[in-house]
Amino acid sequence: MLGSKSDQQLITRALEGSERAWLSLVKRYEKRLYNYAYRMGGNADDARDMLQEILMAVYRNLGAYRGEGPFPAWLFRLASFRCADFLRRRRPYVQDTDAMDLIADERIDRHPEANMISTQQNREVIRLMNSLSRQQRLVVELKFFQHFTFDEIGSQLGISSNTAKTRLYSALKSMRKVTEVSLAV
Amino acid sequence: MQCEQAQLYLFEFAEGDLDGSLRSDIDQHLQICDACSDLLQGIWEMDLKSTAWTNINVPRWNRRDYFFSSRQDFSWLQLAGSLSSVLVLILVLFRVEITNNETGFQISFAGQSDYVSSQEIDSRLRQLAMQNQRDVDTSMVNFTSQQVAANQLMLRTILMASRSERRQDLGTMMTVWNEDRRRLEESTEDSLRFLLRNQMQGRREIGNITHVLNTITNQQDNNL
Ligand SMILES: [Zn+2]
After folding, report:
1. B67 lies within 8 A of chain A by CB
2. Which fold has domain A131-185?
3. What is the mean pLDDT of residues A98-109?
4. Which of A40, A81, B48, B123 is 20 to 30 Å from the Cα of B24, by its Cα?
5. In chain B, how many domains are there?
6. Which is it for strands B97-101 and B104-108: parallel, antiparallel or unpaired?
7. For position B117, what pLDDT does the model report?
8. Average pLDDT over residues A54-70
9. Cα–Cα dist B164/B89, whole Å
């Protein structure tokens, strides 16, 4: 893209104290991170909180990024850590059906301007993700939605790439069960 | 071919990234194995579902206020570089070992072999803070530059921050630091050399901090 600054340029400017450069970087990644957080958290409120926590962590630690790899890989390493931390602290999760009601309510009452969970397909993804454990959900997210390699996922989560693979398979197995059950009903 | 072996390459198979005999071996295995066929089906289904996801717009929020207005007292961004260096120095010089896992992180001080759970980190850090606070204060008084005052503030912030803030800062730093360390030999010297090369502030400042922390460490050793 002509005229748009690279991640590295924005980071350098931000570290020199440019608020504008930092905000540009935020705008560049916030939608991707918000959707990530939405699938991980399952609802809009948690997604927003998680997005802000992740970005604050990036803000505080930006000086530690040394351009050794692509910025998104570094970004999602922090995001995965903060996301796991967030979900660990979160109140015990609401039941599946409640979560669906919540989404419907929010859509009508609280965020009418946003196209929350706009499609049936999004609902289906959230439902499946909710059925998984935190760790399984994270691996599914990083593989299918962020398209990281198993090596990258392993290094982001501090596990081996084979463990990441095994975890993904166990997630797929349990999602297939969920799908079968709902088809049978 | 066994299931275990087939599943090692199943994802690459699904993405069409395999060729030759490996591909046909897996193909053959899939003909006779329901479990692996189911998994492959699962990969394809999830792939389909992920491409059908419609991106949701971020609700409006005031980015400028969130990052800048509420933090006028402490400019994290400018100190981010030194925050990581001070923290790494503390970790190196106090020989703090922190391992990160999914249930939290474990920490051990000064080569002691007893690992503590994440719940105990709080009290251990508070102990460390109390033990070192006076030393840090008196040693740091000798430095006049503003940056050192800021470092002192950071030390205090890290050690005295609320439990959750400290956990968050430590946690995020650990993620970064562990990755860096993995790339280097796990020795103090290498870590320090690495830091010196990458420091945003000058070498002298780091030298000063190293000296102070060394002094503290020695005092601590003498006390033991
Ligand atoms: Zn098999």
Report:
1. yes
2. Arc Repressor Mutant, subunit A (1.10.10)
3. 42
4. B48
5. 2
6. antiparallel
7. 44
8. 82
9. 22
